[in-house]
Amino acid sequence: MSNEQANNKNEVDVVIDEQVVDAVDPSSDDAPETRDEEMERLRTQAAEADKRVLQAQAEAENFRKRMRRDFDDQLKFASTNLIVDLLQVHDNLNRALEAASGEGDSVSGLRDGVAMVAKQLTDVLAKYQVTEIPAMGEEFDPNHHEAISQMPSPDVPAGQVSHVAVNGFKLHDRVIRPSQVVVSSGAAS
Question: Where along the chain is composition biased (Basic and acidic residues) (predicted)?
């Protein structure tokens, strides 16, 4: 860099430095007023920013509370459709009981009515993915069956279910009630 360029650079630096000094020079008449206005503007912006932060926090908390309430309501009333369908089965059972209390050939009518209600109940359960666990004649599986006893049986091989005391059910693929079974110990010796 030549001397002339260096001198020009120094002159520019000096001019810039003087402008900066003039802008913040406390001896200037405009400076205190400008500084006070600037401080007030910054205070206002800070207050507005604080207000926005508080509003955002309040909105977030309200959203969390609303989501928690909605989740609790969904959990509380999740079985509503199932209950409505089961109430129809309940109504039909009451009709069957009324029919049984009447006179005449009510035994066969009652049997037919109860069979229809049992089928309706099975259909409602299937609608909600509740299926019966097959047990009779099956190999004993502790994941699906609960052995209540073991008895010898000449007709059923050892380790297989010879009698089902209570049917078990699955919801989708999860066992919600295991089948209570009697397991064969094979032929008596």
Answer: 32-50
Distances (CA, A) of 7 to 2, 18, 154: 9, 16, 118
Neighbours of 96 (CB within 10 A): 19
Return the pLDDT at 179. 93
Residue 160 sits at φ, ψ, to 5 deg, of -105, 160
With DSSP H G I counted as helix, E B as strand and the rest as coil, what are the percentages for the chain, rounded to 5?
60, 15, 25
Query: Of 75-79, 122-126, 169-173, 185-189, which range is least confident?
Result: 185-189
Residue 166's φ and ψ, nearest 5 degrees, are -140, 130
Domain spans, the chain:
33-78, 84-128, 130-189
Strand 179-184 and strand 145-151: pairing? parallel
Calpha distance 157→183 (Å, rounded): 9
Is residue 25 scored above 60 in pLDDT? Answer: no
pTM listed for this prediction:
0.56
As a whole number of angstroms, the distance between CA 2 and CA 160 comes to 106
Query: If residue 5 lies in a helix (H) or strand (E), which one and from where to where?
Result: helix 3-24
Q: How far apart are CA 102 and CA 109, in angstroms?
A: 11
CATH superfamily entry for domain 130-189: Head domain of nucleotide exchange factor GrpE (2.30.22.10)
Mean per-residue pLDDT, 135-153: 93
What letter would DSSP give residue 76? H
